[in-house]
Design a protein that fits this description.
Elements lengths: L7 E5 L4 H14 L2 E8 L8 H8 L5 E5 L1 H14 L16 H15 L3 E3 L8 H12 L4 E3 L10 H10 L15 E4 L4 E4 L29 E8 L2 E5 L2 E2 L2 H14 L4 E7 L5 E7 L1 H17 L2 H20 L5 H13 L5 E8 L2 E8 L8 H4 L12 H18 L4
Parallel strand pairs: 1-2, 1-4, 2-3, 4-5
Antiparallel strand pairs: 6-7, 7-12, 8-9, 8-13, 9-10, 11-12, 13-14
Amino acid sequence: MSESRISKVVLAYSGGLDTSVILKWLQETYDCEVVTFTADIGQGEEVEPARAKAEALGVKEIYIEDLREEFVRDYVFPMFRANTVYEGEYLLGTSIARPLIAKRLVEIANETGADAISHGATGKGNDQVRFELGAYALRPDIKVIAPWREWDLLSREKLLAYAEQHGIPIEQKRGKKSPYSMDANLLHISYEGGLLEDPWNEPEEEMWRWTRSPEAAPDQPRYLEIEFRQGDPVAIDGEEMSPATLLETLNRVGGEHGIGRLDIVENRYVGMKSRGCYETPGGTILLRAHRAIESITLDREVAHMKDELMPRYATLIYNGYWWSPERRVLQELVDASQATVNGVVRLKLYKGNVTVVGRKSDTDSLFDENIATFEDDAGSYDQKDAEGFIRLNALRLKLAARQGRS
């Protein structure tokens, strides 16, 4: 599709400098109508001001949507059913938000008759891949315009000059500007750039926004109980909550107790290593709690198989393949395993640590105290049977040893 054939574009629009410049640039470069889409996924900033900014730039079709519940219910919770962690540490807070945004961009394009979508992701990052793979999976004929791969406005100074030249109103925030590139949603907030570009530098305490330092956290621990139904958390301390409210609550409580800080160097899909810091208080608590309830409700081999598949599942999400056939198949397997993951987990939060101190399931526990006891088990388990079990499993080891292979 040539530039001249593009008549309408749906832009993922935040109202900030980058996307405001992109909006005007699309109008000028492609001589097209622009539809803006602004999503509230819990980033903690007002999204409604984006409407006035879009109107000032001549936009007639403006979408501003609260997607917090959908984000947690249909993306975060399914991911946590798999205990998903990328490269052993990262809880995928940015990665899991992109498929939802890609889906809505395509849906709005269909609703408005647009033939293209556009985003503000740079050519060095993972987000361009995530947005575009998702869009193509949902609408193969969609045109994607990525300005950072086309224009020469590759510095903040050039963006500001373009904005001034074209009369684009840019809000100048008072106070000290953060030196970091940040991304936030209900699952996490991330920090990149600034002094973090040197992986030897320790993050400044002033950088963290959601969590207290463990040193400043309360001296008394906080106990809480999380109830699960079919693998999803549904209540805290007996109070049922919607998905978004539950995660917001855990973020607040976890942040007070210094839970969820992370400093990692990760391998980006585009080939480079990147240092980033993250705050994921609620997610850190949920991961620990979910594994605890699975420990008493999942069959051993099912649990082990999930652990073996999880890294593949995590990589699919990180690399942008949420809408791929293989992720959907893996999700069906994971979801099927969660039918019996019901019960309550009790946790202790204390100075940056989450400790499981209790777990129970009245309907689906596979933990049998009569068998597990160190006391007389009244014949539930014949310890003499272990001798034959060991002999059979030692057979191949003995054969190898006799041939000098061990």
